[in-house]
């Protein structure tokens, strides 16, 4: 009986020693999808969105409807927001539309131009784009156009 116990004990020790000498390796792959979304005035947008504008000029003053657009970006990497303004017709092109977030006013172009950019946002990042009109003001009347926003990776 003692010899059976001794043999069993030796086999356990040799088995444990052999198990310690083995190495196993595992490869774990995690795929993190690209996240790049934006919303305009609480409406979801899919990479590109349009904001129709009406500009009313009268008696040396003006009113733009809407006066601005709230833009929220959600991204897990670099992003850039481009914008352009297209008047509805040649007469509407007399109204030169401006934009700003804070500080200096800048003129919209009729082609996409980067107006904002950033990195990972860690949640929704909100910015308000305000609209203005370049002087001298066009003749009294109503002018229409569309601002197009496009969100892309740099």
Number of strands: 11
Strand content is: over 45%
The level 1 CATH classification is: Mainly Beta
Major sheet summary line: 6 strands, antiparallel
Mean of the pLDDT scores? 88
Q: Distance between termini?
A: 77 Å
Placed side by side, the strands forming the largest sheet appear as 2-1-5-10-7-8
- Total number of helices: 1
Which of globular, elongated, flat, extended, rod-shaped describes the shape? Answer: rod-shaped
CATH fold name: Jelly Rolls
The residue fraction in helices comes out at 10-25%
* Global Rg: 31 Å
Instruction: Briefly note the structural class of the backbone.
Output: mainly beta
Give me the strand/helix succession: HEEEEEEEEEEE
Q: How many structural domains does the protein architecture include?
A: 1
Question: Mind sketching the topology for me?
Answer:
Blueprint: H1 2-21, E1 36-40, E2 43-45, E3 48-58, E4 61-65, E5 68-75, E6 79-87, E7 97-100, E8 106-107, E9 113-118, E10 125-133, E11 141-152
Antiparallel strand pairs: 1-2, 1-5, 3-4, 3-11, 5-10, 6-9, 6-11, 7-8, 7-10
């Amino acid at each position: 009986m003692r010899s059976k116990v001794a043999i069993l004990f030796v086999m356990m020790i040799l088995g444990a020693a052999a198990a310690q000498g083995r190495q196993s390796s595992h490869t774990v792959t995690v795929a993190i999808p690209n996240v790049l979304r934006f919303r305009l005035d609480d409406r979801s947008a899919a990479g590109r969105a349009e904001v129709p504008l009406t500009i009313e000029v009268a008696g040396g003053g003006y009113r733009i409807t809407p006066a601005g657009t709230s833009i929220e970006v959600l991204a897990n990497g670099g992003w850039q927001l481009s914008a352009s303004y297209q008047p509805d017709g040649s007469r509407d092109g007399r109204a030169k539309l401006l934009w700003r977030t804070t500080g200096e006013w800048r003129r919209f172009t009729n082609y996409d131009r980067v107006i904002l950019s950033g990195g990972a946002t860690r949640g929704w990042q909100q910015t308000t784009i305000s609209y203005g009109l370049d002087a001298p003001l066009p003749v009294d009347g109503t002018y229409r156009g569309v601002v197009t926003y496009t969100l892309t990776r740099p």
